[in-house]
Amino acid sequence: MRRILAAFLAFSLAAGGPALADPLANQLFGAKRAASTQKPHAIGTYAKGCGAGFVELPETGPTWQAMRLSRNRNWGHPELVQYVMDLSVTARQMGWAGLYVGDMSQPRGGPMTSGHSSHQIGLDADIWMLPPKRLNLSRGERESISSISVRTEDQTRVNGNWTRTHHALLKAAASDPRVDRIFVAAAVKVEMCKTAKRSDKSWLQKIRPLYGHNTHFHVRLKCPKGSGLCQTQTPTVSDLSNGGTGCDETLTWWVTDYLEQLRNPPKPSKKKGPRKKGAREFTMADLPKQCSAVLASQ
What we know:
The structure is a single chain. Strand 1 and strand 2 form a beta hairpin. The longest helix is centred in the first third of the chain and has 16 residues, at 78-93. The chain is globular. By secondary structure, the chain is an alpha+beta fold. It has helices at 2-15, 25-30, 78-93, 139-144, 164-175, 186-195, 237-240, 249-252, 257-263, 290-296, and strands spanning 41-45, 48-52, 55-56, 60-61, 64-66, 75-76, 99-101, 124-128, 179-184, 207-209, 216-221. Helix content is 29%, strand content 14%.
């Protein structure tokens, strides 16, 4: 189906058909089954870009398994793939069998047809909170098995699924100099702020609270050397933490005011500006111009 869609889009573009003169970028990138034959490069921003010369994380390795293989999202910049493999070895050393790896990027990055608005430049990876019991899951099992939540339903505390190994693994993940930041459920950061040793909390700055991260943690790498077209996220974690660890009122907001706003949403403002376009609405004109060459490459 994807091949048919890709061929149809290509024909329409070549013919100059008015109906598909401006196709959606996520359909074009989602139809690509393999990476471009270019030098590895992350292009654009995490939520508006693409990637050249990506490599595939093998579906199964000695210390990891890629999950949800039908999505074909186990691709990334070579630095991300190496990071994931390195972290899986660390997980084995800590007592887990390894890691279950969720979504990374599509073969050429870009906007996705479903799910994430980020993960577009090959520097994001979701790591499941579920400690693997075995690393020989079939393709079918990898589609049906689910991760576990490590926070309570009220979002204020970690639950019984949270372990010291989760803490140690996240500390190791954040301490790697390749990492820009790691997104977790706010309750996870609250717990880590409580239990981290006072003499060593500098790495906590990279642990950032964000909704929707109770079953996995989302690792985001810095722009690799040689990727001059890559834009590292701003504000920096140092700016967000005021040079500290982030274990302050900005974290408290996530388990107080934020939850209150979820229960009692504020009335919408009467002033309506232009609606911001979502990632699944991007056309190629919205992405860096180099993404057209990535898409066209063999």
